[in-house]
Amino acid sequence: GDACKRQMLRLLGLAVEDIRLNYQVSEACKSDVQQYCAGVKMDDGSYSGAMHACLRKSWDHLSPECKAAEEGVEKLEHEDVRLNPKIQKECPSAIAQFCGDVPPGNANVIGCLQAASAKPEFPEGCRAVMAALLERSSVKYSLNSRLKAKCDADVAKLCPGAKDEPQKAADPSILGCLAGASAQLSGGCRAELAALVRVHLNRYRIGMPLTSPCDGDVLARCNVDKQVTPFLLGGYIQSCLTKNVDKLHKPCWSLLSMFDASQFNAATTLEAKHWTPELQAELTQKVTEKVTEQVVAEVRRELEPQLINKVHSRVDSALAQHSSSIKPLLFALINAVSLLVGALAVLGLVGWYVWTKYIKKGTTRTVAIKDGRV
Question: What is the SS3 assignment for the chain?
Fold first, then answer.
C-alpha cells in the first residue's frame, strides 16, 4: 500500500544518507572504509552521504564487493531526488520553481532539473549538484535510468560488446555507441537520447560519449579548444553547431537532427538528396572546373616570368650586338616573338590536355559526401 511505500522510501533515504544504516554496503565495504575513509567522522552533523562520496573518490581501488554495493546506492541517487542527499539539501527551491508538477521517481524530477539548469535564474547550489550528477552519468549508461528504460532493446541490437563504463579509452561505451547510431534508434530511445544530448550540449566537454560525434566539428567550427570548453556559456556549442549545420560531418549532423521529428525527417531527406546521380554529377563538374583553373593558374605562374625574362634578354642582347644594323635587330625581334608564340602554344597544349583528360572525358572525381561515402 501507499503507507508501506512511503515507509520503505524513508528507510532507503536513511540508508543512502548513512552507510551504517545500509547493512549490505556496510558489510561489503568494511575493509574499504577502514583503508580509504577512516577520517570521515561518523557523528558529524554534515555526514549525510559523506561516506558514500568518500568511497567513490577511491572507486578504482575498491574491492569488487564494495564497488557492486556502491553501484546500487549510486543508481538510487540517480533515479529519485528523494534518495539523493545533496539534491535534498540544495535543490528544494529549484524543484518547487521548475518541477513542481513533475512526479518523483524514474528520474523524472532529475531530468526536469537537468533541463532547467541552464536557465539564468536556476539556483547556483543546485546547479553545481546537477553538474556533478551529469558529469558522473555522462560516462555510465546504467545511471541514466530513463534512457536505459527506453534503449535497452536498441543496445542489445546495435551495441553488442559495448561497456556500461569502459575502463580504457579504447573500449567502446554504450553511450558512445548510441550517439553514433542515432539514426538507427527506435523512436522512444531516440527521443530520450535527444533530450539527454541537449542537456550535455549545454554543458559541453570534449570527450563526453554522448556528444563525442561532434568533437571534431566543435574544434574546427566553434573557435574553442579542449582547455576552453569547461568555461563556455551554456548553449554556445549548440548554437555554433546549428549555425554551421551545412558544414558538419555526418555523425554530428545525425546527432543534432534528433531534436524533433521534423528535423530528423528533413535531415533524412537532405541525406538522400546528397546521393542522387544529378547532384553527384553537379559536384563532379564543379570539382573538375576547379582543378582545371588551378592547373592553368599554376602553369601560367611558372612560365610567364621565365618567358618575359627570356624576351627581355634576347632583345637586350640583340640591341647591344647590332645597334648599327636594323636587320639583325629585326631578326632578334622575330626570334623573340617566335619564342613567345611557342610558349603560348605550350599553354594551349596544356589547356587542351586538361580539357580532354578532366572535362571532355568526364573522368570520375572523388567527392566526399557528408556521410563519408565517395
Answer: CHHHHHHHHHHHHHHHHCHHHCHHHHHHCHHHHHHHCCCCCCCCCCCCCHHHHHHHHCHHHCCHHHHHHHHHHHHHHHHCHHHCHHHHHHCHHHHHHHCCCCCCCCCHHHHHHHHHCCCCCCCHHHHHHHHHHHHHHCCCHHHCHHHHHHHHHHHHHHCCCCECCCCCCCCCEHHHHHHHCHHHCCHHHHHHHHHHHHHHHHCCCCCCHHHHHHHHHHHHHCCCCCCCHHHCCCCHHHHHHHHCHHHCCHHHHHHHHHHCHHHHHHHHHHHHHCCCHHHHHHHHHHHHHHHHHHHHHHHHHHHHHHHHHHHHHHHHHHHHHCCCCHHHHHHHHHHHHHHHHHHHHHHHHHHHHHHHHHHHCCCCCCCCCCCCCC
